[in-house]
């Protein structure tokens, strides 16, 4: 909080501990930056890709994955180049970058899009983690009692457990202190993705019964009308868009890169590494998952119990998901925490409750800065997202809606508009025209994906009872 924003000259501290903007020296490297991005990218979105490929088929599915990855990589490069203002000053948040390059009402529109999306992702991760926790318990139940037993469990108690853990983790002061947590989370994402496609390979190689696949995905027929096909295809595009949803925290991640080097160059390398790795894993999980399950691919291919054995490996994969999302939740929440705390510090600068921090010695960890305001505000936020996760536990449609809502404004529109402004690209020039065409295409995809997900949510709500979620 305020301890991290004061200038060294004001606090009387050693200048060697501060960057050129007066903030405590940043320590981010290519490795930690890549880990932050991978933690943000390879999230719960990977689990729905087999289902998404089943809706799109062998042709459109891979094309969609590659297309979204290329667009995300390109616009992330644009966003990285817009990070510093014309006078060379760093921007600390996505809204700061928009303010520096565009200004006007677009700052407020960016804030609404970014923070509503971050809140939605927090809710989505709470849902996903609880589903994986339940899957571990159900897997052991199946092992003991047999697969014919339902072994159904309420998600609510596991959403609450996840919330309690997040209350503790949310006391980590800022993004700069998340490096270890992000590295662990990145390793976990590799682990469960690897287990997922290894199990898919084993299922395909072992025969496991005939599965139906197709060039255009699930066919129109007895089990699916042409209208359902259209809407499910739209929802699948939203799921893939969500799988690449990390632009909301890209600026905050770039702000962790140490000074003395070109932050945008480090960010570009980290983005390329992270997206290449992520797309490889997405291809393996999505395509192999579709090959293993065919048209019956579950919405979450590690908790839909297409895989029953070896049960301990399925349990391990879901445990890795839980550990990963514990860190990923923090990566997406820190911008919200920082925004509220900065605003509160300016609004009530004379309040000790808001601004004062207490240094507490921690065994083997050095000192820890504790704040009563941080404890109260962040705990309230976690409780809020936990309650909403218990109220609306719809995985695929919720993920699709989040992807659709964030993809065009935050991943495409603002990076393109800011780069055009910063590079002073002439209106109606060739570069300006093709960038606007790209933005229009992505807007159309986002609207279709949002429509498909909203329809799915409406259908789910017709038979759903609040706080009675069962897996």
TrEMBL record:
GO terms for molecular function: symporter activity. GO terms for cellular component: plasma membrane. The chain crosses the membrane at residues 30-53, 59-80, 115-136, 156-173, 180-202, 230-251, 272-293, 313-340, 375-395, 401-420, 432-458. Keywords: Amino-acid transport, Cell membrane, Membrane, Symport, Transmembrane, Transmembrane helix, Transport. Pfam families: Aa_trans. GO terms for biological process: amino acid transport. The keyword Transport applies. Residues 27-458 form the Amino acid transporter transmembrane domain. Its main location: membrane. It is found in: Cell membrane. The keyword rRNA-binding does not apply. Belongs to the amino acid/polyamine transporter 2 family. Amino acid/auxin permease (AAAP) (TC 2.A.18.2) subfamily. This is Amino acid permease 6. It comes from Abeliophyllum distichum.
């Amino acid at each position: 909080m305020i301890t991290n924003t004061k200038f060294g000259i004001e606090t009387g501290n050693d200048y060697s501990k501060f960057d050129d903007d007066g903030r405590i020296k940043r320590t981010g490297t290519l490795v930690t930056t890549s880990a932050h991005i991978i933690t943000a990218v390879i999230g719960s979105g990977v689990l729905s890709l087999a289902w998404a490929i089943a809706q799109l088929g062998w042709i459109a599915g891979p094309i969609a994955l590659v297309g979204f990855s290329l667009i995300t990589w390109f616009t992330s490069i644009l966003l990285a180049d817009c990070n510093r203002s014309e006078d060379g000053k760093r921007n600390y948040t996505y809204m700061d970058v928009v303010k520096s390059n565009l200004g006007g009402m677009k700052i407020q529109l960016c804030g609404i899009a970014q923070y509503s999306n971050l809140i939605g992702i927090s809710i989505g991760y709470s849902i996903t983690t609880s589903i994986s926790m339940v899957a571990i318990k159900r897997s052991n139940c199946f092992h003991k009692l047999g697969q014919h037993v339902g072994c159904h469990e309420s998600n609510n108690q596991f959403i609450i457990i996840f919330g309690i853990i997040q209350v503790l983790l949310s006391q980590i002061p800022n993004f700069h202190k998340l490096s270890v947590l992000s590295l662990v989370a990145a390793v976990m994402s590799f682990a469960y993705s690897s287990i997922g496609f290894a199990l898919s390979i084993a299922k395909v190689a072992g025969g496991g019964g005939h599965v139906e696949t197709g060039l255009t995905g699930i066919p129109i027929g007895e089990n699916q009308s042409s209208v359902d096909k259209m809407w499910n295809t739209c929802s699948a595009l939203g799921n893939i868009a969500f799988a690449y949803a990390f632009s909301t925290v890209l600026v905050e991640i770039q702000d962790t890169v140490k000074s003395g080097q070109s932050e945008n160059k480090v960010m570009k390398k980290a983005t390329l590494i992270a997206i290449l790795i992520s797309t490889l894993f997405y291809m393996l999980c999505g395509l192999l998952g579709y090959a293993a399950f065919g048209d019956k691919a579950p919405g979450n291919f590690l908790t839909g119990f297409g895989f029953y054995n070896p049960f301990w490996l399925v349990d391990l994969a879901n445990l890795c998901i839980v550990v990963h999302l514990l860190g990923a939740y923090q990566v997406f929440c820190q911008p919200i925490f920082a925004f509220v705390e900065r605003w509160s510090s300016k609004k009530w600068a004379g309040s000790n409750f808001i601004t004062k921090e207490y240094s507490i010695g921690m065994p083997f960890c050095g000192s820890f800065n504790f704040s009563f305001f941080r404890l109260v505000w962040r705990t309230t936020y976690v409780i809020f997202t936990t309650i909403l996760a218990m109220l609306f536990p719809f995985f695929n449609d919720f993920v699709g809606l989040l992807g659709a809502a964030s993809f065009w404004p935050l991943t495409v529109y603002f990076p393109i508009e800011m780069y055009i402004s910063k590079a002073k690209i002439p209106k109606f020039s060739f570069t300006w025209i093709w960038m606007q065409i790209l933005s229009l295409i992505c807007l159309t995809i986002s609207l279709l994906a949002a429509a498909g997900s909203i329809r799915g949510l409406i259908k789910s709500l017709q038979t759903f009872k609040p706080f009675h979620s069962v897996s």
